[in-house]
Write a structure and sequence with these properties.
It comes from Pseudonocardia parietis. The chain has 115 residues and is an all-alpha fold. It has helices at residues 2-23, 27-63, 67-74.
């Protein structure tokens, strides 16, 4: 996680340096706060990763498996989840209406006038 955080910060600093060299000091007015925001976000993610991993390990040790596998073993249905019904196809009509294949008896060729 630390390597990934360092890589993200390196790319952000590199982008800011390239923008500074290309556009001059006004880039720092926007890029400086953005760089601080990236640094705070990465710091928060690094600090919360360890407790999240410990919680996941503790939950896995308590149930012996992932929460999704144990839900299947409990018999929970797939149609009761957060995205249930999202990908379902709406019901379609049972059949097509009757279609006339042959022309009716009073049909006339195109361009012919009725007399």
């Amino acid at each position: 996680m630390a390597r990934l955080a360092g890589m993200v910060m390196g790319m952000a600093v590199g982008a800011l340096v390239v923008a500074y060299l290309g556009f001059g000091w006004p880039v720092l007015l926007l890029g400086g706060p953005l760089l601080v925001g990236v640094a705070i976000t990465v710091l928060v993610l690094v600090l919360t990763e360890r407790p999240r991993a410990l919680l996941l390990r503790r939950r896995a040790a308590g149930t012996g498996d992932s929460p999704w596998r144990s839900a299947v073993e409990r018999g929970d249905h797939a149609d009761s989840g957060l995205m249930s019904g999202f990908f379902e196809v709406s019901p379609q009509p049972a059949g097509l209406p009757a279609q006339r294949i042959a022309p009716s008896s009073d049909a006339r060729p195109a361009g012919a006038r009725r007399q």
